Amino acid sequence: MSKFQKTLNILMEFSLPLIFGVIAALIAANVDYHAYHVIVDYPVLGEGAEILGHPITAHFLINDIFMVFFFGIAAKEITEACLPGGDLNPPSKAINPLLGTIGGVAGPVGTYFLMLYLIYDGHPDFDAVANGWGVPTATDIALAWLVARLVFGAKHPAVNFLLLLAVADDAIGLGIIAVFYGDPNNPAAPEYLLYFTVPAMVIAYILRKKQVMAWFPYILIAWTLSWVGFIMAHLHPALALVPIVPFLPGPSRDTGMFTAEDETDQEHQAGHHEHDHSPLHNFEHNLKLPVDIGLFFFAFANAGVEFASVNGVTWMILCSLIVGKVIGIGLFSGLGAKIGFPLPDGMTFKHLIVAGIIAGLGLTVALFVAGEAFPGDSAYQGPAKMGAVLSAGAAFLAIVVARVFGIKPLKDAA
Predict the structure, then answer these.
(1) Distance between CA atoms of 27 and 21, rounded to whole angstroms?
(2) Burial readout 100-137 (b: 16 or more C-beta within 10 A, e: otherwise)
(3) CA atoms within 13 A of residue 126's CA, in its CB half-sphere
(4) SS3 of 328, please?
(5) Engineering a disulfide at 152: which of 138, 156, 163, 333 sits with its beta carbon 3.0 to 4.6 angstroms away?
């Protein structure tokens, strides 16, 4: 493996483009907030250029087109998890982590509304602030995976437990965005999904039946049609690949998440990669690096908030992400274990608590939802995004709590 490839793998493994994008956005916004927004809202094809009524700005290209592929890769992980050998197959195998997923959504939402009544009861902006309840529901899959490996060790069962939980609650997050965060000035028109997205799914199905073994035609034809359906239905077009990805031909069994980075050259040469020629796998394999690097631009376009914008909403988001996740996941998975749906072998309640803290890493998806929950002219968008950014501190908290609990990475355990 070349030094260049090793450098790229490190960038991907440690989500460095995303982290650098957040840092660059915070610096730019706090040095010159106006100049920052001039860059983000720059009309790429000139003033007046539009797609279906949407100005073609840098922000539009990033959030409404580029993020399609980010959510498409998330949909790929969910699709493979449903295959034989996956964490969602058979369903009984996934009951405890899925109970934790429910808790990981209910806990933050409950915490958010509790704090809403404590801080904003009687406030004229009560309803506006209430709209942010969806921001702390999801978990940043890649960062959670990275921190879990550092805390528990790569082979510890808590890593797969947390990955399944993160993928499942991101699936719920996709639903929340689609159902609750449409454009209030343009009410949802779901009939356009019937006119465009459903035919796109039919086309993807036909391509699969015709055994088209390249992912590009599925994306070029079916995604384009689906994207038009979503944007005309006034639903977020970043979700356009979610109903298309499950039609891509895949392996007969789940091959695991994020396995490409762990595969040795010897394993590759020995053929321990049955999914190499699967369109579903190749879709992720070919796009994951561009998407990982592109997350720099997503973070830069969405994380630029002024430090002075911190207010009660910031702490509501942060507390809901960390405290709400811990309470919800601990309560629901703990009760599940009590009634006959045990935690994975080798995982204790202490591991569950630390996993709950790690699940509080909401960064990417939380930033995305914050932009949808609060319009660009809202006084609460910046504070909400700052709460999402500060949730990165969950990584350090998890490391400290793991030390206090005596949890060591599995490879170092006695």
Answers:
(1) 10
(2) bbbbbbbbbbbbbeebbeeebeeeeeeebbebbbbbbb
(3) 12
(4) helix
(5) 156
**Structure tokens belonging to residue 278:** 């699967």
> How would you classify residue 189: left for phi > 0, otherwise alpha for psi between -120 and 50, otherwise beta?
beta
Residue span of the structural domain in which 304 resides? 3-182+239-412
φ, ψ for residue 57, nearest 5 deg: -100, 170
CA distance 105 to 86: 22
Indicate if the pLDDT at residue 413 is higher than 60: no
How is residue 269 written in tokens? 């040469």
pLDDT at 253: 74
* CA 244/CA 226 separation, integer angstroms: 8
Number of structural domains in the chain: 1
What are the distances in angstroms from CA 358 to CA 12, 86, 270?
19, 22, 35
Examine residue 188 and state whether it is found in any structural domain, yes or no.
no
- Residue 161 sits in a domain whose CATH number is 1.20.1530.10
* Strand, helix or coil for residue 85: coil
What's the first-to-final CA gap in the chain, in angstroms? 33
In DSSP terms, 123 is beta-bridged to none
196, part of any domain? no
Asked if the structure places residue 50 within a domain, the reply is yes
**Structure pTM?**
0.77
**Cβ contact 184:373 at 8 Å:** no
How many residues are given for the chain? 414
**200: in domain:** no
What pLDDT sits at residue 74? 79
Rounded CA gap, 396 and 12, in Å? 20
Per the CB < 8 A criterion, the answer to whether 352 and 166 are in contact is: no
Exposed/middle/buried for 376, CB within 10 Å: 0-12, 13-18, 19+?
exposed
Nearest C-alpha neighbor of 356 from the set 95, 106, 12, 131: 106
Amino acid at site 21: G
